[in-house]
Design a protein that fits this description.
By secondary structure, the chain is an all-alpha fold. It has one domain. It has 13 helices and no strands. Helix 4 runs parallel beside helix 8 (169-189), helix 8 crosses helix 12 and helix 10 (201-221) packs across helix 11. The two termini are 14 Å apart.
Amino acid sequence: MKKIALLSLVAITLLASCGGNKKQTTNEKKTFQQEQLEALVKMQADSIAALWADSCSKVPFLAAIADGQLVLSEQEKLVKPDYLLDTKQVEDFVDQAQRYRALAMYNVDSYIAKAYGMPTEDYEAASQKLGVEINDPALETLINNFNSGMSYKELINEFYKDEEENQTLNYFWEVMTASTVEQIYVLAKHPDNQLINSFDDKAAQDLTYRIILLQEGLDRLKEYDSNLEEIAEAIKPLQQLDAISLEQFKEQHASLKDDIADVREALLK
């Protein structure tokens, strides 16, 4: 998939049927309308991304695993997760959008592997391979800064700005969607253990809110990129996630676990 300027609205045209000066006026009107619509869509996308960043702190279970504060019991570690994205599957991701999504998922899965005392080298190798194939300086900066002490808000804002400068904002939405889906997929597999219990009501609300923001952003941008259209359709079942408390959060994840698995599978196609 070629890198494209997501908000380039080349498909929006006005048909001119007259010649001479009137045709020139029509062209000027078309250019003006294009610029106005592009500015409006860009403003909406910028606002949604800003809201996303404002609502973010590091996801509790990922942060707790990274800091060594979340330690599973030996009994919990006995049953290793068999649902993580297979690192051998890395060879199957030949489309650029797939690579972005898979890299985001491998990043989440590496934390889960660590929590269960599983080797993480394969996840690191798969992520490195995809990173080389993607060759996106903005994504590389995001990964390198993830454990730098920067706030999650700072990380997201910088990633958005960098992708905007590269005219590849579509990949910002790919990464955010895949990472969020993998997080809720993992949580749905564990309706009542330390991973989901690392949340409180506020954290549950924030994650639900970010899912809503994803849907808002993708719905506005999907007509400009076929891959974003695909994932906008794929994540529709997540509209049922509207928890405002941890208890409701657990219940919804448990009841929607099959839908969440289907969403995740759709993103990997």
